[in-house]
Specification:
By secondary structure, the protein is of the alpha/beta class. Helix content is about 40%, strand content about 20%. The protein has one domain: TIM Barrel, CATH 3.20.20. The chain is built from eight helices and ten strands.
Length: about 230
């Protein structure tokens, strides 16, 4: 069995299907990918659950302004998490920050409590933080299973040394999921530092100007991993 996992960040049901066709092992469903992703509609979540048979994680993010949430926004997040759990989603992708750029542990723990026993990914809010080791410990302390990150840089290539550090600091207490700029040209370098979980949208703009997953871009990463693993 392969020791790696490829997660397709899908902007729509069609993109999720394209990701699966490309060989992705898991889907992260969101909407508005051009602004970093937001919570998809409940209708789309339910529809995708019927359409594909690989694990699905749902991005829970009510707005794209930042990662700080009011009480009412937190209530909406909790409600969306409960919906995902009720219909049997495999996991959710969540996270909250304080104004100073640290992890908002109180809000994140509330999200994790609502989500369990689903799997929980702390999303790339982590890359807006400023203290790699402390932020990692905070995410672990909140009970998250996975951390999606490019190592607090612009992309995985710039953040590769921090990604390597996160793997060592995490010491198998949390899964490091590398995301932001993952493609077939940097997959091998990431694999060599110990990354085994890869996150990419593999998207291009379609004729309507909307980002949509390209089967071939997902397949290129899968093929590269098959060569080196």
């Amino acid at each position: 069995m392969n020791d790696y996992l490829v997660e397709c960040c899908a902007n729509s049901i069609q993109s999720a299907i394209q990701g699966k066709l490309g060989g992705a092992n898991r889907i992260e469903l969101c909407t508005n990918l051009e602004v970093g992703g937001m919570t998809p509609s409940r209708e789309d979540i339910a529809t995708l659950m019927e359409r594909i048979n690989i694990p699905i994680r749902i991005l829970i993010r009510p707005h794209a302004n930042n990662f700080m949430y009011s009480k009412s926004e937190l209530s909406q997040i909790i409600s969306d998490i409960h919906f995902c759990k009720k219909i049997g989603v495999e996991g959710v992708v969540i996270g909250a920050l304080n104004m100073n750029g640290s992890v908002n542990k109180e809000q994140t723990k509330a999200m994790v409590r609502a989500a369990k026993p689903m799997n929980v990914t702390f999303h790339r809010a982590f890359d807006d933080c400023h203290n790699l080791q402390q932020d990692l410990e905070d995410v672990i302390d909140c009970g998250c299973d996975t951390l999606l990150t490019c190592g607090q840089h612009k992309n995985v290539t710039d953040g590769i040394s921090n990604l390597e550090q996160l793997i060592k600091l995490g010491n198998k207490r949390i899964t490091i999921l590398a995301g932001s700029g993952v493609n077939h040209t940097n997959t091998e370098a990431l694999y060599k530092i110990g990354i085994r979980n890869f996150h990419l949208s593999g998207s291009r703009k379609n004729q309507q100007g909307k980002l949509e997953t390209d089967v071939l871009l997902i397949k290129a990463v899968i093929d590269k991993l098959a060569q080196i693993a």
